Amino acid sequence: MLNKNRREKVLKIMDLVMIINSKSKNTVTINYYGAFESFDIKIYEKGYKNKSDDDYSMDMDLKKDNDLVLDSVIYLLTLLANK
pTM, whole model, 2 decimals? Predict the structure, then answer.
């Protein structure tokens, strides 16, 4: 089980994804895999189109990756949310 700090960061990432998708042309997808404590995220800066390549992609293992990786994702998503 994730500790409280990591859970809060994952929830912040999901919140930012919903904000970005509701107000901008950037399309962000996130898949959370609770059984494996991991997620992947893809950003399509010009919007998602069928079979389009993502501009940014990351797979995150919440058991192995450190908090700096989560913080960098939060920072990037915050920039996109504030565009």
Answer: 0.86
List the one residue out of 76, 36, 33 whose CA is nearest residue 56.
Answer: 76
Encoded amino acid at 3, one letter:
N
For 26-49, b/e burial (b = at least 16 CB within 10 A) is bbbebeeeeeebbbebbbbeeebe
Q: Dump pLDDT digits (tens) for 44-81.
A: 887 887 777 888 899 999 988 888 999 999 999 999 89
By C-alpha distance, which of 32, 37, 35, 33 is closest to 15?
Answer: 32
In three-state secondary structure terms, 43 is: strand
* H helical segments located in 1-83: 4-23, 67-81
* Calpha distance 30→40 (Å, rounded): 6
User: Is the model more confident about 38 or about 2?
Assistant: 38
